Amino acid sequence: MTQTPTASSQKLKNTVIRQFLIIISILLLVVSKSVFADDKKQSPPPQTKSEAAQQAQQKVNGRVLKVEQKSDVYRVKVLQKSGRVVSVDVDKKSGKVTKDKKD
User: Do 97 and 56 touch, CB atoms closer than 8 A?
Assistant: First the structure.
């Protein structure tokens, strides 16, 4: 003998499913915002070589060896604890810090 769900139990089941989907949607929204927020964290544009060096050092965590001033970026060479030297570009206008793809 199979039981057919009553209208009230079916309504309760639908409500629980709806609440579950709402909670999952909210969690996904919060997680996606925090992931994209990390990408948007950007320092103000550097005014000096020293500021560019500080921003690069924060990005790759190491000792600054050299800072070169190019037309649109500061090129910063950083020695990491592993012994690897990496080049980092700090954009003069936006402050965006990017690792050189060659390294």
Answer: yes
**Residues 38-42: contacts with CB under 8 Å, at least 24 apart:** 42/94, 42/95, 42/96, 42/97
Two structure tokens written together for 57 = 């050092």
**β-strand partners of 64:** 78
User: What are the per-10-residue average pLDDT scores of the chain (103 residues)?
Assistant: 70 92 88 59 83 91 94 94 93 89 57
Q: CA-based Rg of the chain, rounded to a whole angstrom?
A: 26
CA nearest neighbour of 24 among 36, 32, 35? 32
User: What is the reported pLDDT for 91?
Assistant: 94
Residue 43 pLDDT: 74
Which CA distances in Å does 53 have to 49, 85, 98, 102?
6, 14, 13, 19
Longest dimension (CA), the chain: 83
d(CA 77, CA 63): 9
